[in-house]
Every structure is written in C-alpha cells, then in structure tokens.
C-alpha cells in the first residue's frame, strides 16, 4: 500500500504560498483539491491472483448451495387453456370464451412427483400478457382506491373512468381486467382447503386500498373485462384484486392465488375443478396453473446459482491463467532498464 500524504502536504503548502491568494484550510478544501492522504493499492501479480482465487472460493460454494435450495423446491406446472376447450371448438377459441351458454367447467388431474410439505403455494401464470404497457399501467387512480368516490379526478383511468354517467370504483384498465378463473382442489375423497387470506402485501392492504371503499358501478358497461367484485366487501379485503393491481414487469408472470396448508405425498393425484373464464385467447396468451413449495431462498429459480457458479469458475480459470503466465514470465520488482532510465532522466 502506498500512502500519498507527503506529496499532498507539499502541494498544499505551495498553494498557500501563492502571493495575493487567501490561505485555505480544512479537510473540505483539501478534498475538493484532491490533496487528502490516500491509500493506493499496488496490484502485484500475487495480489491479483489471490483476489481471483478468493472470489472463486466464495462464488462456487455459494452457487452450489443456492442450486441445492432451488432443486429442493417441488413444482407442478399445468397449462390448461387449450385442454379445457372442447375439441369441436378448439378451432374457434373466441366463440368458446365469449359465449356464456357454453360451460366453462374443466377438470384437471395432477400427479405429485415428490412429497410436498405445507404450505403449498398456488399460482396462476399468464404468458404473452403485457401488464407493463404504458397505457395499461397508467390506467388507474391510486387516490380513488384509497378514498373512494371522494376523489373525482379519474382522468387517468381513461377509457374506463365512468359508465352511464356514473363513476366506476375501481376505475381503469387494470381493475377492469382482473383475473377471474377459479380453482378447487381435492385429493382422494377429501377436499383440499385453499387459504386465500394474506396473499397480498400487507403494505398494499393497509395503505393503498381503503377500508371504507366499496366497488361501485363496476363491470356494468357494455364491454365486460375480467371478473366482478363483491360490492359489499371493501377493497382492502379483496386480495385477489390487490394482487392483480400490482402489475408485472415482464410479459410472463405468476400471481399468488392461495395456499394449501396440507402435506401431499409422492404419487398422490390432485383433482382440480376449475372455471376457465378468463379470456387470454384474443391476444394469444397462455394460462397455467402452478403448485409449488418453497425453500429458505424462496421459489424455484436456478438463475442465481448458475450465475454464481459461472462467476466462480471464471475467476478460478483467470487466476490459473495469470499464475501460469507469472511462473513462465516473472516480472521482477523494479526493472533494471526502467530504473536506469529513470536515474538518467532525473539527473538530466
């Protein structure tokens, strides 16, 4: 380490010695003039090789640990949007989803590959759904969600700010398109109860959705979007709406539907009775049902583990290459040619 302090004091003394210029003191002035003492690390081959080795020893075990945690998560993914359409209507999906006279009931059978320990999280996944579209994201009114009809500035909710000359609560495209597929689960002869409480963020329930705000004039227009809301339940208790209103950043996303608080054994068969109500066919979307356990790291995601292994392996390879180069062509401290040239230049 090189402590750059003597030079700083010399430069500071020269600055203060300039005639007609007021003396400058204090750390702030020295900081602005870059005259503070500084530690300058000397990057020798040994320190560079040791640094890369240390990074490899840190990131490789970290990647193995996180990958093991991710692989311990048991996940079942079932795409049901196509399989739940009668075969005679699969060539005309829009007719199926828009015709209310056609039954939307569907049964799916899921086999548990490994034992799943409670809680088992239930997600619905949508693909090719751009919740991050600028027009869609802006089509909401946060003050109305918190204060209800007391806030009349609903211009941001266009084109769904009112219906029949009456305001809509909650207004906007996000609330209008709320997901409305429903799921019921059973295993053997017993029904699996789904806990749908506390699926939304606590901060959203307490600070973004009013406890005295109730749906009003919602889904009463000629164009019906997603699901309907209970007009007798305040928005702060309609957690499926709160989860949906937190828009996703990517076109493929999952949102929490509920939790199964029972253990499931390997090779168990789960019967899912679902209502295929949500229209994802008009824009080429996909709908999937996901059952997943969790680990101390969260859900199943191999990215962090793979990235850590890649970084650690890369650092180890770089350190080995640098070590071989240093052994083959060592660079002595203080090159004789450089020191002799430096002495001649200083003497002249």
In short:
By secondary structure, this protein is of the alpha+beta class.
Q: Care to describe what's here?
A:
The protein has 348 residues and is of the alpha+beta class. The chain has two domains: 44-73 and 298-329; 77-293. Helices cover 33% and strands 18% of the residues. It has eleven helices and 13 strands. The chain has helices at 6-16, 27-32, 45-71, 93-98, 134-138, 142-147, 173-176, 202-207, 239-245, 303-328, 336-347, and strands at residues 2-4, 38-40, 75-79, 105-111, 120-127, 162-163, 166-167, 182-187, 190-192, 194-195, 253-260, 269-275, 286-292. The strands form four sheets. It has a five-stranded antiparallel sheet. Helix 3 runs antiparallel to helix 10. The longest helix has 27 residues, at 45-71. The two termini are 30 Å apart. The relative contact order is 0.20.
Structural class: alpha+beta
Name the shape in a single word.
extended
* Span between termini: 30 Å
Contiguous runs where pLDDT drops below 50 for at least 5 residues: 1-15
Number of strands: 13
Helical run tally: 11
Q: Please tell me how large the radius of gyration is.
A: 32 Å
Q: Main sheet?
A: 5 strands, antiparallel
- The helicity comes to 25-40%
Strands ordered across the widest β-sheet? 3-13-5-11-10
* Oligomerization state: single chain
Percentage of residues in strands: 15-25%
How many discrete domains? 2
Mean pLDDT: 87
Helix-strand string: EHHEHEHEEHHEEHEEEHHEEEHH
